[in-house]
Design brief:
The protein is α/β, with parallel strands linked by helices and 939 residues long. It folds into four domains: 177 residues, 5'-nuclease (Rossmann fold, 3-Layer(aba) Sandwich); 221 residues, Nucleotidyltransferase, domain 5 (2-Layer Sandwich); 155 residues, Alpha-Beta Plaits (2-Layer Sandwich), CATH 3.30.70.370; 111 residues, 5' to 3' exonuclease, C-terminal subdomain (DNA polymerase, domain 1, Orthogonal Bundle), CATH 1.10.150. Helix content is 49%, strand content 11%. The protein contains 37 helices and 24 strands. The strands form six sheets. Strands 3-2-1-4-5-6 form a six-stranded mixed beta sheet. The chain is globular, with a radius of gyration of 32 Å. The N terminus is likely disordered. The chain binds a DNA duplex (11 and 13 nucleotides) through helix 24, helix 26, strand 17, helix 31 and helix 32. It catalyses: DNA(n) + a 2'-deoxyribonucleoside 5'-triphosphate = DNA(n+1) + diphosphate. InterPro entries: 3'-5'_exonuclease_dom, 5-3_exonucl_a-hlix_arch_N, 5-3_exonuclease, 5-3_exonuclease_C_sf, DNA-dir_DNA_pol_A_CS, DNA-dir_DNA_pol_A_palm_dom, DNA/RNA_pol_sf, DNA_polI_H3TH. Belongs to the DNA polymerase type-A family.
Length: 939
DNA sequence: CCAATCCCATA
DNA sequence: GTATGGGATTGGA
């Protein structure tokens, strides 16, 4: 492409895929209504999108020509090719139907041409315009995220796509990322994988991954079909042979028509200044006030706010729209490497003057307990970042360490800044950095943690909370991948061996992005009601958890080793018995082989096959067989238990003991569970066995330091108590106040009498309620026919009408707003699944949505207790008591001998009053406390 | 060496 | 039926 063709005079056509946009907008945006009370959420989203696009008229690379393309008719040439095409597509939701005509009205209001043509789908019309514009030498941007249209991308010819929903440009590189093949090969991949929504058959067993891999290997569909002899997987090969015709048909179905006559000539699509009157009339008619204000205020020229923010503003006029921040591209070349004192002093002064600074520590290891510092990066403004190396060494034996300031000097100079109460220190996953500085004797405060902020705002959304992922989601920015610096696998190097140049770009970017995230997220915390949960619950927990991780818990290595060999012997002898019962050896640990042995070799009946065609051999199945007297099944069950205990616990735990401290230091994740719970990893100390006697032995390996005891305090039935509170069930609340056994009470209400079986059934049902289970699910769990399950749940609702009301109101709230809330305001998001057209996905989201407020409130409570615990203990003169672990409803402490009763009183008080003063509960929170030489004894 | 799958430990 | 993390096997890079 010549320079002349890229001159500003080159026309740039924007083709808006209106039909697909409105579907996606419907599922992604809240169900707003317009001034007439008609559903208009999708129309609103569509209007703001057109606004933004049209607004680019005068901008560089903005549209000079524009058209909206719609689907006109149901019947197209594809139906003639294949009568099943789009045959199973469900009808559009009923509150979307009335919005279709409004799309044309909205488009006319902008005075933009709206193009549809009988017998052609929108995709085809777009393809025709792309072809015409391409030969005329125009640039084209297709505004859509439809994967079928990605076939048309041709960056050399200036043809790309724009996904306004995610504010993302799609070019060759993005297509490669998604499909593993360039745009011109996308049709080949689509043909193989098929499309269940449009009912394009594809080849069974081939999904996106395999399709992409095959096309990468063979180039196109025909070559794949002609090369089946080179395909090693037998199932895949057969499927390709059997369904070759379907694959060829699919290839034609996904091929876009690009040579039909244009309904409107290219020149007719020129974008002129948009007359104000029709637009004003439309916005006023619909009652889109925030847009109307913008039309009257800054006019169409004002930009910056996203569609999402407009919707927030439309939903609640009081909530301020997010600040309009101009996007500044990340420029890593602006970052400085600090290797002299005056420069360091300058940065410290700058941070102090500013009042906030983002920082990130780089180390040689992801485990912060044993990690050594490599360097520290700071950022004070977008693109204004520096990296201070302190622990870099040469990349290999021959090279010397680079010149850098001594670690002790840097830490000494930074300490006053890091401890300055007037300067906010911002980190991403700040727990890690906090531990690094704590090890150096610096108590960093005050802090903000952008990872926790993201979690408190966006838990449950489609993106996680890692720095790179958030950079992508919020700024459409790709961070330097860590493996690009350090490699991967066995050739991976540690960060302290990275050259200072690349290290500065990487570390500076981390601090830079962290700062940008803070600027972006901080205003949202208050605007979206997350202040209570962030400021009072999660933020204060960052150093608390950091301290717990540093303390670790003492583990008796010799005892674990003895258990390991004991288990090992038992496993051996079980294996011999199993081989005997199975008439020959096999890999017991392989579910595949075990299934073959049980249902093949031994010829047992009743095997359940799962979706992969493999026999299920889980506990339920094996227990069923064992109950029928199958020796082999009960032996395998025992073998499974012992191998699980040995590999996951006795062996793995020994390996996790830190040689310096003789203790195990887990890592708690503050953002691991969508409901607000913590999670624990490396090792996971939240799933140490307790239910079986033999598993319980593992708990005895957790011991107290010399002169201390382990104390365990746990909330009794906290989730049921919270359910009784939140659903407002008088009998249940009363029972909890009087210390009545709750499952017996439920059995009495449901069955009119109480015995062991009925109490157990009632217990199952009580839990099923917490988990949002259906009548069908309860019946399955209790082993009853479906109608009896339904009868039981009806009776439950009849006896406890509050539960039904709670379920109902939780679901209608989440359907409307897309999120649930705990008593303390923590939100968990459930879009898009809560509105999924797929009933099983939707039902899954509904169960999770019923559980989330209860599980989440329980998580909030114990977190509030934890945040207050250290101060309360210190005030009681129990500064020596160490909080070590949290297991969702339990806290484990190390308490000096003789102080157990005192500690018990304080801990119980803090935990029982954790809701106060924010919330007044009508149900007491019971806390059970025990202690002993080891964890097993403390229960 | 990596991922998908199955199974299983906890609350 | 909810929420997690992790080990072993398997099959293909």
């Amino acid at each position: 492409m010549s320079d002349a063709a890229q001159a500003p005079a080159q026309p740039h056509l924007y083709l808006v895929d209106g039909s697909s946009y409105i579907f996606r907008a419907y599922h992604r945006l809240p169900p707003l209504t317009n001034r007439h009370g008609q559903p208009a959420g999708a129309v609103y989203g569509y209007t703001t999108m057109l606004w933004k696009l049209a607004d680019g008229l005068s901008k560089a690379d903005g549209p000079t020509h524009m058209a909206v393309i719609l689907d006109a008719s149901e019947q197209t040439h594809r139906n003639r090719m294949y009568d099943q095409y789009k045959a199973h597509r469900p009808p559009p939701p009923e509150d979307l139907v009335p919005q279709f005509p409004l799309i044309r009205v909205a488009t006319r209001a902008f005075s933009i041409p709206c193009i549809e043509e009988d017998g052609l789908e929108a995709d085809d019309i777009i393809a025709c315009y792309v072809a015409a514009a391409k030969s005329a030498g125009w640039k084209v941007t297709i505004v859509s995220s439809d994967k079928d249209l990605m076939q048309l991308i041709d960056e050399d010819a200036g043809i790309d796509m724009l996904d306004t929903m995610n504010d993302r440009r799609i070019g060759r590189e993005q297509v490669l990322e998604k499909f593993g093949v360039p745009p011109e090969k996308v049709g080949e991949v689509l043909a193989l994988m098929g499309d269940s929504v449009d009912n394009v058959p594809g080849v069974p067993g081939i999904g996106p991954k395999t399709a992409s891999q095959l096309i990468q290997q063979f180039g196109d569909l025909e070559t794949v079909l002609g090369s089946t002899d080179q395909i090693t997987k037998p199932k895949l090969k057969q499927s390709l042979i059997d369904h070759a015709d379907n694959a060829r048909l699919s290839r034609e179905l996904v091929r876009l028509v690009c040579d039909a006559p244009l309904p409107e000539p290219l020149d007719g699509l020129v974008l002129k200044n948009i007359p104000k009157e029709p637009l004003e009339e439309f916005l006023a008619d619909q009652g889109f006030k925030s847009l109307l204000n913008r039309l009257h205020g800054g006019g169409v020229q004002q930009t910056g706010a996203t569609v999402r923010n407009d919707v927030m503003a439309a939903m609640d006029a009081k909530s301020p729209a997010a600040p309009i921040t101009e996007k500044i591209d990340v420029d890593r070349s602006k970052y400085e490497t600090i290797i002299d004192e005056p420069s360091l002093d300058r940065w410290i002064a700058e941070a102090r003057a500013q009042g906030y600074v983002a920082l990130d520590t780089e180390t040689d290891c992801i485990n912060c307990i044993i990690a050594r510092l490599a360097g520290i990066s700071l950022a004070t403004a977008p693109n204004r970042a520096c990296y201070i190396p302190v622990g870099h060494i040469g990349g290999d034996l021959l090279s010397d360490a680079p010149q850098q300031l001594p670690e002790s000097l840097v830490l000494e100079k930074l300490k006053p800044l890091l401890e300055d109460p007037a300067v906010i220190k911002i980190g991403h996953n700040f727990k890690y950095d906090w531990v690094m500085f704590d090890k150096a004797g610096t108590d960093v405060a005050p802090v903000d943690d952008t990872m926790v902020m993201s979690f408190d705002l966006d838990a449950g959304k489609s993106f996680g909370h890692g720095l790179e992922e958030l950079a992508k989601a919020h700024f459409d920015h790709e961070c330097i991948p860590f493996k690009q610096l350090c490699g991967t696998g066995s050739k991976q190097i540690t960060f302290d061996k990275v050259q200072l140049g690349p290290a500065t770009e990487y570390a500076g970017e981390d601090a830079d992005i962290t700062l940008r995230l803070w600027l972006w997220l901080k205003p949202r915390i208050a605007a979206e009601g997350a202040t209570q949960v962030y400021e009072r619950v999660d933020k204060p927990l960052v150093p608390v958890i950091g301290r717990m991780e540093r303390r670790g818990v003492k583990v008796d290595r010799d005892y674990l080793a003895r258990l390991s060999s004991e288990f090992g012997r038992d496993i051996q002898s079980l294996e011999e018995k199993i081989y005997e019962a199975a008439c020959g050896p096999f890999t017991i640990g392989s579910p595949q082989q075990l299934g073959e042995v049980l249902y093949g070799r031994l010829g047992l009946k009743g095997g359940r096959k799962g979706k992969s065609g493999q026999y299920s051999t889980d506990v339920n199945e094996l227990e069923r067989l064992a109950g029928e007297g199958v020796q082999c099944a009960s032996l395998v069950l025992e073998w499974r238990q012992l191998t699980k205990l040995k590999s996951t616990y006795t062996d793995a735990l020994q390996a996790q003991i830190n040689p310096q401290t003789g203790r195990v230091h887990t890592s708690f994740s503050l953002t691991g569970a969508q409901t607000g719970r913590l999670s624990s990893n490396d090792p996971n100390l939240q799933n140490i066995p307790i239910r079986t006697e033999i598993g319980r032995k593992i708990r005895d390996a957790f011991i107290a330091d010399e002169g201390y005891k382990l104390l365990s305090a746990d909330y009794s039935q906290i989730e049921l108590r919270l359910a009784a509170q939140m659903a407002d069930v008088p009998q249940l609340k009363e029972a909890f106040r009087n210390g009545v056994d709750i499952h017996s009470l439920t059995a009495e209400e449901l069955f009119g009498r109480v015995d062991r079986d009925r109490r157990n059934q009632a217990k199952t049902i009580n839990f099923a309620i917490l988990y949002g289970s259906s009548a069908w699910g309860i019946a399955g769990r209790l082993g009853l026919p479906k109608d009896e399950g339904k009868a039981i749940i009806d009776r439950y609702y009849e006896r406890f009408p509050g539960i039904r009301a709670f379920t109902h109101s939780t679901l209608s709230f989440v359907r409307e707003h897309g999120f649930t809330r705990t008593l303390f305001g923590r939100r968990t998001h459930f879009l898009p699944n809560i509105r999924s057209p797929n009933p099983s996905i939707r039902a899954g989201a509904e169960r999770a949505a019923i559980n989330a407020p209860i599980q989440g409130t329980s998580a909030d409570l114990i977190k509030r207790a934890m945040a207050r615990m250290d101060d309360a203990l210190r005030e009681a003169g129990l500064g020596d008591v160490r909080m070590l672990l949290q297991v969702h409803d339990e806290l484990v402490f190390e308490v000096p001998n003789g102080r157990e009763e005192e500690a018990k009183a304080v801990i119980k008080k803090v935990m029982a009053s954790a809701a106060e003063p924010a919330i007044r509960l009508d149900v007491p929170l019971d806390v059970e406390v025990g202690w002993g030489a080891h964890w097993g004894e403390a229960h």
